[in-house]
Amino acid sequence: MILDPFVIKNHTFKNRIMMSPMCMYQVYKKDGVATNFHYTHYTARALGGVGYIMIESTAVLPNGRITYEDLGLWSDSQIEPLKKIVEGVHALGAKIGIQLSHAGRKSRTENIVSSTNQPFSESYLTPGRLSPEGIKEIVNAFKASARRAREIGFDSIELHGAHGYLINQFMSPLVNDRDDEYKDGLKFLEEIIDAVRSEMDKDQLLQLRISAYEYDELGLTPYDWAGILNVIKHKIDMVDISSGGVIPNMVNDYPGYQLPFAKIIKEETGIITITGGQIDNLNLANEALEKEDCDMVFFGRKLLMDPFFIYKYDESLLPTSYKRASTLIKSKS
Ligand SMILES: Cc1cc2nc3c(=O)[nH]c(=O)nc-3n(C[C@H](O)[C@H](O)[C@H](O)COP(=O)(O)O)c2cc1C
């Protein structure tokens, strides 16, 4: 199952494994430009047999970075090294997307902004509440970054609507305390989706990452998100289901902890769903697909630790040059 191909529009993913977006904090000059580290990091996972690589959170504006070491796509000068990564990953037979994001009040940079003027916690800066003009600038920044993502040749764009970053700050009733036309955060999200779509090739896929559950009785639930997604599902191709990070509270995590959220959303909306969370083996991923909890499974920390773990399940997938390594693989993990 998990190693079977998956077709979405005119894209055939060679398997249903997505490398989850993970910040690497490896930009050295605070310029948002990808480095040799990023090239090696992403192509290594493609070499390891991952079907779908998602590049880490990449900011659409300098004050939308989570840290100064994050990737950015607010300038044409950031295009070239990302193009090399895309070419490298494609040459290894994998698809690749980029996660476009704005951290809002969770940014550790300066002059930060949000849907609110309340900080994330005492240890974060106090954000300026965005005016409608400020919002327009951010929507335009997403649009410009999408244009660059098209020029680079990404197969997909993932909008980071999860983990309490800016889109989530507009969507969540735990954060959005506005009384203007953006009180319903869906207006902000839809403006971004429309702007980004207007720059994308018709073959490129648009994916939204959400925090389907906010671990607070007043926060959003998978059922709330299903209702929201039913309004916008004709505009997006896939939803990537995560949870938490909206307010500084505890996440109750265990292997597969987000599968129930994905199942609800898949059943209620019919959208293609990707999820994961503490999944460190392909058997659990297979179970999730068999139970129709989701359509693809993401792996994060497992791939940091063991970029070649897929081949331990199926040695026949080893690249030709590595075939002789199979004589050494004794235990499956
Ligand atoms: C080092 C690290 C960096 C992360 N950075 C991001 C990120 O840039 N964007 C994002 O949406 N999630 C990020 N996450 C969350 C992961 O994408 C993933 O959802 C989470 O780690 C759970 O999956 P796992 O248990 O397979 O690691 C990060 C996680 C880790 C461990």
UniProtKB/TrEMBL annotation:
Pfam families: Oxidored_FMN
InterPro entries named in the record: Aldolase_TIM, OxRdtase_FMN_N, YqjM-like
Presence of the UniProt keyword Oxidoreductase in the record: yes
Cofactor(s) annotated in UniProt: FMN
Alphabetized GO MF terms: FMN binding; NADP binding; NADPH dehydrogenase activity
SUPFAM superfamilies: FMN-linked oxidoreductases (SSF51395)
Keywords in alphabetical order: Flavoprotein, FMN, NADP, Oxidoreductase
Leader sequence segment: none
Source superkingdom: Bacteria
PANTHER family for this protein: NADPH DEHYDROGENASE C23G7.10C-RELATED
Record protein name field: Flavin oxidoreductase/NADH oxidase
Origin species: Acholeplasma oculi
Higher taxonomy: Bacteria, Bacillati, Mycoplasmatota, Mollicutes, Acholeplasmatales
